[in-house]
Design a protein that fits this description.
By secondary structure, the protein is α+β, with helices and mostly antiparallel strands. The protein has two helices and four strands; from the N terminus they run E-E-H-H-E-E. Helix 1 packs across helix 2.
Length: 91
């Protein structure tokens, strides 16, 4: 699977990275729905697709920047997805 992290940059995620991303997406989806968090997805895709695409974007950015993605599954309202140098990034 490839994802565009930045214009002109293509990042390939390994099968293990895809598996971890899929697991995190499922867990975050369950936690958010249990907590009653409103899903603000745009488009007609299902909520799991939205969640997975978001996580894959986080993984692609982090892999390109050589930093760890946020692997937490707890409610993360208002937090950032990664820290790159002195910058915090929300994907």
């Amino acid at each position: 699977m490839t994802a565009t992290a930045l214009p002109g940059i293509i990042v390939t995620l390994a099968p293990g990275e895809l598996a971890v991303a899929s697991t995190i997406a499922s867990l975050r989806q369950a936690v958010n729905r249990t907590a009653g968090t409103t899903n603000l997805k745009a488009g007609s895709q299902d909520v799991m697709t939205t969640e997975l695409v978001g996580i894959l974007g986080e993984f692609a950015l982090c892999k390109q920047a050589n930093v760890w993605p946020a692997l937490s599954i707890h409610l993360r309202n208002g937090s950032y997805d990664a820290k790159v140098g002195r910058y915090t990034v929300d994907v």
